[in-house]
Amino acid sequence: MKKLSIILLFVLMLSLVGQTVTFSQVLPKVPRNETLIVDALHGRLANPKDFNFWKPGVSVGNGAQQMLFDGLWYLDPQTRKVINALAESEPVYENNFKKMTVKLRKGIYWSDGKPFTADDVVFTVDYLMKHPGMSYSDAFNRYVSKVYKKDNYTVVFELKESIPAFHYLFTSIVYSTCYIMPKHVFEKVEDPLKFEFNPPVSLGPYVLKQYDPQGYWWLFERRADWRRTSVGQLYGMPQPKHVLFIYYGPDEKKVMAQAQHQLDLIFDLTPESWEILRKSNPYSRIWYKDFPWAWMDDVRARIMAMNLEKPPFNNKDVRWALTLAVDIVDVVTSGFDGIARVNPLWICATESLLKEYYLPLESWLKDYALEDGFKPWDPTVPDRVVDYAKKRGYTVTGNPREIFGIGWWKYAPDEAEKLLVKNGFKKVGGKWYLPDGTPWKITITAPANFEIHATRLAFAVADQWRKFGIDVNVETVEAGPFWNKWNLGDFEVGSYWQVPATDFYTFVQGYHSRFYKPTGEVATAGNQIRWKNAKLDKLLDDLVNLQPESPKAKAIVTDILKLYVEEMPAPVFIINLKFNSQDHYYWTNFPTSDNSYMAPVWWWGQFKFILPQIKPTGRK
Amino acid sequence: MFMIIRDLYRSDKKFAFGFTVICLLIFLALLSFVSPYDPKLWNVVPKNRPPSLHYILGTNSMGQDIFWNLTHAIKNSVFLGSLTAVISIFIGTFVGLLSGYRGGGLDRFLMSVNDSFIVIPSLPILILISSIIKQHINLILIAFILALFSWPWGGRQVRAIVLGLREREFTYMANFSGMNTFQIILTEHLPFVIPWVMANFINTILWAIGMETTLAIFGLSSLETPTIGTTIYWALQYQALLRGIWWWIFTPVILAILLFVALYTLSVSISNYLDPRTRIQRMRMKEGGSEA
Amino acid sequence: MNLLKRYIIPRLIQYFIVIFIGVTVVFLVPRFTPLDPVVTVLNRMTSYGAQYLDPSAIEKLKETMMELYGLKGSIWEQYLNFWKRLFKGDFGPSLSIFPTPVISIIANSLPWTAGLLVVVAILSWIIGNILGGIAGYYADRRWSKVMSIVAMSIYPIPYYIMALVLLILFAYIFPIFPMVGGYSIGLTPSFSLEFIFNVIKHAFLPALSLILIGIGWWFLSMRSLTSTIVAEDFVTYAEVMGIPSRKILFQYVMRNGLLPQITNLALQIGGIFSGSLITETVFSYPGLGQLLYMAINNGDFNLIMGIAVLSIIGIATSALLIDLLYPLFDPRVRYR
């Protein structure tokens, strides 16, 4: 029996090894050099066959929105340029922003041969309005009084009130937008909440060819009529004949897969995983060619969110003291090995926004003084990070201010101490005591496993505050409870990433005191730190009546940024970084720092516009 | 007690081995009290140094000395395991004694509850509970929730023994002499059960340490407290395996093996010493943690 | 008849009580936590910044979803509803991927889990017990001791590390085996030889990792079981009578030792319904474990319940069957 089983095992092994040559490729049936392999954002999906994007909770980042759907406009955060996709041009507002007219692109067809027309757009809005429970349903019901077509390629929206940013509902500013439905499919659907939209009819340049019922991969094939899509009209032929979205598993496996050239684009890695990949695959690259490699133009930045209703965080001086007690260079170097761009303001320090908001504000920042005259601005940060990098033996090419940010707040424990003492805090034996005489303990809430940079920032900041003399504890929390705590305000200090970028206009609206919810109630509007400020309300009231692109709106945004510095509701530390590695072995000309034509966001809907711009290297 | 240990140490090579290793580990755990570093602090030593005279087991990517963290890890893991074992043995033995002695409806009820906890899939529930209480999690809490799923195995065994004892003369004697249930089970039956409890104790320690490691791999342990599990968690987080920082990842693994081998041999020789035949049933309990 | 009344019926009643208590506990635990499936879905929508909804619109959406998910009403009402549905064999819709029925999600992944875990459980049981039995019978031999040491050192290796090392060795350094999935992309499931080989190839590393740990355990327990049986009188008699040692080993010692092991095997097979989370994570292998993990993270009560109920019934039933069938294996045991 034993012998038999061993022999059996041995035979089995041999026969499997014998087949190795044909099976080591991840895609045995499709030529590798015609295929682009992309990391699936959501990992494994429990229901991989559902493509009904308009149903709440359906995940479309694993290829569906990049390959199959299309929207009217896309706002690329890297260049801050608008791509007119299904719309031919920018929207035209009339009647004090109560009427919006959209001209549609002609010659676009669905993958089943039906033409895309104004009927589809009108149908999408009407249909969603008629079906509560669907995404966007409530929004449309609230704003739209009537939608109709003027001709086959012109849609008119009549709005219930004046809404200068209505077109944002159809613009992919971050990640995705309200994509357009195929009327000829959905008009036959009784209950869209039970409809899976499978097989999906595509408006993008690809169609779904095959998917894994177990939810690990999706294979897409280029449409023969790719010219009849917005991508084809704008940028030409998408290069890869096939695109495979696949989830390889934990980071170590993604690293191994890319090192074997079996995974071209990775969503995000940990810094350590990237280090391994960088050393094992010379074709791997993220953004910068040299240190700090990572892409740092993401649309969120890391904050230490303080619940402003919990003392002592309701005190501005305390918040400033905690900010000044942090040596940002130490945080960046010890927590992130110097791979970070500091982000002092309440708007992300991306390539485009640095130019648009940070540089004009620089002189104001230099002169800005706290009430006692202390000037907190520290412009030396980028140079100090470069020094660190050199010490570590890395080369830095490029302008340090563009890479590492233009500055942050000073490391001034003395000033921090002054601010605290002024408010009745006491420091005895190197430990801080609250005004009521109890030892000062802070608990930082941080994500457990799913946002590694937030976790590391929490630990690094905790380290700083401990050195300053505060008893800090970091609690790491799983995703479910983490978001719950966030929404309920059940945190003292939380490591979150709630900072706007190109979406500033819509993002800040939620901070109006109209939407304010006290701690203990769910803050769905985004103001989880419970910031309530009359000045802010005033600015927001003005902003909402302006078109987002207007210079006046920009001036108000600047004022809000200044107000944030004065109040310092929650110190912003660094912009989100991504180690979204690209493999230049089979494909090249992905967006990089020397060719930053678009944001390298494989998981966003706008990824479809990158596909025509990449080039095959000719390797087989 | 001391005499027994001495006898065993001389006569049983396995025992001698296990006992020596345990003493060594306890010595290391005690060293943690003179550790020069607070295990919660990062960046107290240079990062990623291989083992050397200065850093016996090297340093990790968070700037911590692995040797000194290891001493804490042993202490904490053994503490966690022992606490789990104490709680679960306490409940299990009590339920088993009561159920076995009283029999009838109470027996059926207690054993139904007992078996319910055996059939509930423990890992998912443990993951669920610990992910919910993550923010308050500490070793004592983990020990309690682990004990929740380990007591029923002991409960069943103890009941089986007591069922045999119930019909014995001395039980009737005690009963006639007016002792109440609790007096009988505690003074008359408990002594018979003690040998089982000993081996069970060790097995539960091993199970708890293994389970904590599994939870830690999913980040569901008290991550700032060094244990075998959390050390592995951090090493994996920082990709120690692929980056070739072997001294970081293999230290807790080897420690886990040592601890297992030592405790396992101890448990085998103790039960051999007490009664070779009872060992079999005792070991069934361990089975729960095999794959996890 | 007497047997039925005195043994089987009480045992059956207990079987149902155990299932009832188990299911109730699993029902209550997630509901007494702050997990909220609706908030989780909303967060998923907003955390990517996908939705530019007016805050008040989000409020309304939340209401609508509570209604839709059947989460309105007291826990007691939900509990009654749950049992009503369960008797119809319906676990309700999944909440994280609404409205897909839980049962179809489970049915989709169960074959993979069952296929892998049953084979693994049986294989490691057979190999571990045979090796353990032999090693226990010849406990004084050198090779027997070496085997014990090996088993003792393999078994406590944290499973995640074991799996990862195997994967790095045989899928990366020597890329013999695939890194992901249950079969190659582009193949259509069929009963062709090519497909079956492909499936085996994909299952090989996951199975190997589980079998290594499994063997370790069966080996250790069987070895010590046998070494006690060897000391018993009937074995000594058999030896005195000159029966060949192979025959003693397999027909006398092993047979006795295997009996308790059968119970354990049955419990293990009954427990496969909750999947093997780590195996699936490391090898990206299809199965129920990760689904359950995702369900826990998303507060998907119905999916958690679906898998947990199956698992509870699975283990309870195995235990029941073993109790009822045990006398067939062991003539010494009578129904009591």
List keywords for this structure.
heterotrimer, A: about 625 residues, alpha+beta, D-Maltodextrin-Binding Protein, domain 2, Dipeptide-binding Protein, domain 1, Dipeptide-binding Protein, domain 3, 3 domains, 5-stranded mixed sheet, 4-stranded mixed sheet, about 15% strand, globular, C: about 325 residues, mainly alpha, MetI-like fold, 13 helices, about 75% helix, about 0% strand
List unreliable stretches of 5+ residues of chain B. Answer: 276-292
Proportion of residues in helical segments of chain B: over 70%
Q: Cα distance, first to last residue of chain B?
A: 36 Å
Low-confidence stretches of chain C: none
Classify the helix fraction of chain C into a percent range.
Answer: over 70%
Largest sheet of chain B: none
CATH-wise, what's the superfamily of the domain at 111-299 in chain C?
A: MetI-like
Radius of gyration of chain B: 21 Å
- Classify the oligomer: heterotrimer
CATH names the topology of the domain at 111-299 in chain C as: MetI-like fold
Give the number of helices of chain C: 13
Residue-averaged pLDDT of chain C? 84
Q: What do the pLDDT scores of chain B average to?
A: 83
The helix/strand class of chain B is mainly alpha
The greatest interface here is: A-C, 83 and 82 residues
Estimated share of beta-strand residues of chain C: under 5%
User: How would a textbook summarize the main sheet of chain C?
Assistant: none
